[in-house]
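Curious: can you check?
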Amino acid sequence: MASNAEFNKDMARFPLGTWAVVDSERTELVFTRHYAASPDAVWAMLTDPEKTQMWWAKVRGHAKTGSSFDLKWLNVKDVGQGIETDWWNGRVVEAEAPALLEISNSMHGRIRIELVPVPGGTVLTFRNVVALPEEVVLMSMAGWHVHLDHLNEALEGKSIDWQHWWDDFYPCWESAHASYAAR
């Protein structure tokens, strides 16, 4: 596991995502990122439970349409003290390796990730349609922004030290949150 000190913590290196109200209960969060890795490599980071822990969450399940796909967050403040979060149950709505993963999750609504090969890598489009109170939207935008930054680092072989996430990356989250709030 790489020391979190080795990570690029410049929140400005990727463009900000966008959000739009879908209806009276749901908001769609959208991010587009270019990664210097093949769609197969990015797909593995999205679906291989050993790789998802490097940047996102523990995964329980398989990336096959109709299969379970449960998530357990790792950047919980007290995880270093042995406190575990609950599993958020989910299901794969659609999976087409290595181009499309769409999941439905009890905590995060519907997440759709599309991968398109381009010269020099992959363009990832991340969409999350979720029921959130208005005051939580910008917090979620900042959270996904940081996790997608972590994905870039994971593609370079670095794994987050989750026990030190709050010390090392909460300031990054605060910076991203401030950027979204200023928009």
The two ends are 35 Å apart (CA to CA). The longest strand covers residues 121-131. Residues 134-155 form the longest helix (22 residues). The chain has four helices and eight strands.
